[in-house]
């Protein structure tokens, strides 16, 4: 077992949240179990996974399938008329589902486009092997002690859609607290993927939480310690 302690240092505030409250304020994540603002370990796992996906563009199911779908989008649109129903990416387990339902109309549309990718892609792909997917159990465990976070309210954000509805803009609760967690890796492949994910985070390719396109959620990641 390889143990990596990772620390995320935000350079802009991050917003981990559910839905806006009726007074048009985006609250920070809280629940009936924890009455204070907090982060779920699954949020941290999802963030690391996104970074890993961008770290392995040539072997990740999500990137390969989405690239192929985008370049064949007109072909797909001719067969699936409701554009909202078009799926833009497939994970390894989704591909298994497609193959199992190959006779359904919808699956056959995607299989026609993704055939080459599916033949070439080693499934589960590197990212799914490490993070788990569908019935594939991952090779890592995230250990994060849930604790209350300090939050600050940012008022009057002029996000175009919100601004049209409310001239005062949107209020958002954000945090700038560092996040420290431990990753337990089963093997070297897992360790390698986590190290690459950390460097992708530091390139600001992925951001944490909501409103990423508005500049929230830029964090630096540091491996504080690594031991076997
Ligand atoms: Zn995969």
From TrEMBL:
It holds the Pfam family RAMPs. InterPro entries: RAMP_III_fam. Keywords: Antiviral defense. It comes from the Archaea. GO terms for biological process: defense response to virus. Residues 34-219 form the CRISPR type III-associated protein domain. This is CRISPR type III-associated protein domain-containing protein. It comes from Sulfolobus acidocaldarius (strain ATCC 33909 / DSM 639 / JCM 8929 / NBRC 15157 / NCIMB 11770).
């Amino acid at each position: 077992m390889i143990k990596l302690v990772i620390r995320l240092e935000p350079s802009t505030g991050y917003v981990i949240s559910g839905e806006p409250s009726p007074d048009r304020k985006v609250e920070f994540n809280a629940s009936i179990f924890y009455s204070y603002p907090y982060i779920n370990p699954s949020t941290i796992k999802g963030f690391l996974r996104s970074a890993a996906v961008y770290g392995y563009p040539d072997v990740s199911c999500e990137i390969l399938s989405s690239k192929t779908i985008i370049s064949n989008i007109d072909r797909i649109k001719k067969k699936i008329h409701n554009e909202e129903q078009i799926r833009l990416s497939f994970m390894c387990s989704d591909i298994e589902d497609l193959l199992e339902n190959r006779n359904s109309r919808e699956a056959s549309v995607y299989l026609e486009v993704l055939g080459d990718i599916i033949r070439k892609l080693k499934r589960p792909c590197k990212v799914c092997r490490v993070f788990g997917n569908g019935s594939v159990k991952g090779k890592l465990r995230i250990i994060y002690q849930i604790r209350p976070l300090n939050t600050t309210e940012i008022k009057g954000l002029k996000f175009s859609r919100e601004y049209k509805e409310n001239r005062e803009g949107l209020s958002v609760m954000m945090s700038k607290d560092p996040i420290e967690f431990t990753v337990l890796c089963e093997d070297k492949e897992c360790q390698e993927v986590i190290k690459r994910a950390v460097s992708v985070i530091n390139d600001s390719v992925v951001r944490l939480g909501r409103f990423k396109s508005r500049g929230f959620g830029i964090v630096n990641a540091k491996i504080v310690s690594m031991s076997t």
